[in-house]
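agent> fetching stored inputs for the magnesium ion docking request
agent> found them:
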Amino acid sequence: MSDPNGPVLELKDVAVHFGGRGGLFASPGPVVKAVNGVDLTIGRGETVALVGESGCGKSTLSNTIVGLQAPVSGSIRVAGEEVVGADRRKLNDIRRHVQMIFQDPALSLDPRSTIGATVGEPLKVRGVAKGEALKQRVGELLTQVGLRAEHADRYPHQFSGGQRQRVVIARALALEPGLVICDEPVSALDVSVRAQILNLLVALQKRTGVSYLFVSHDLSVVRHICDRVVVMYLGRFVEMADRATFFANPKHPYTRALMSAVPQADPVVQRGKERYVLSGELPSPANIPSGCAFHTRCPLATEICSQVRPELTPRPDGALVACHHA
Ligand SMILES: Nc1ncnc2c1ncn2[C@@H]1O[C@H](COP(=O)(O)OP(=O)(O)OP(=O)(O)O)[C@@H](O)[C@H]1O
Ligand code: SF4
Ligand SMILES: [Mg+2]
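agent> prediction call returned; pasting tokens
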């Protein structure tokens, strides 16, 4: 890959749309604009949290970065290499640098494969290791995530949810990727094991230097692990800031509303002064409101908000905010 010290991920104006084409006799359906032109750079060893309500486009963007979904426009560079339009061979090569951890470990693991076969599969498929060396590497990977080498012979149903997510993490790290996209990695887990898995992700980052894009709708989870936070609303980023700035001084009315929704028990998250209540449903991404897409729910909205879309602009403390009045 090009520059070993360059960013692991660079997104430029990435848009992902669904539908719009009818069948042979059907009229075209509405275009669902799930992701609408986003820019993001993630550095080595950095954790960026991507937050927003259900349906705002977090998983669509994640899937697009790993190549499960094609963008309609924009550029995606992984470790300096362009993913969009790359041929299959190059894509395959690039993809080893980006792995994904999904919400439900039970759905990510083949119930008929042993844990050892599952964790070793990427190494075997790419010819990185075989035979005794493969077995040894699988043992190391299992140990790294807090399991034991002898667990390799067991099947997924013989583990708890938290242990299964450890297996998924071991497999994601097998090829030593530069970036792991964690899409709600603790949401399906028992509250009692969430902190253990988050601590494991942090410890693995310290050891390997891996970067994370950490997707969550839960601000109290991301504040434990992220360096930076990005807030998404209807396919666009509306606020972006380093963790300290973000939690000390959230600016966008949508961000403030998300913070108000966090339970009172989290005093740091609750520091925002006035409470903004998020009213109404998220509008459909097939019919995005004009101007600022948040104007239909925003307590600060004025006439300009429905007419002119605010761009992300830098603030004195370094935060980027897309709002006419914040
Ligand atoms: N394959 C698809 N075809 C059509 N629409 C889709 C498809 N995948 C996602 N969408 C739509 O795109 C929008 C964004 O979905 P996405 O799954 O990215 O949201 P999300 O932010 O991950 O939500 P959640 O927090 O619930 O996981 C939603 O309106 C969803 O219905
Ligand atoms: S631009 Fe207007 S509608 Fe959008 S968040 Fe700011 S105040 Fe609210
Ligand atoms: Mg999702």
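agent> quick read of the result: Residues 58-59, 183 surround magnesium ion (ligand 3) (CB under 6 Å).
agent> awaiting further instructions
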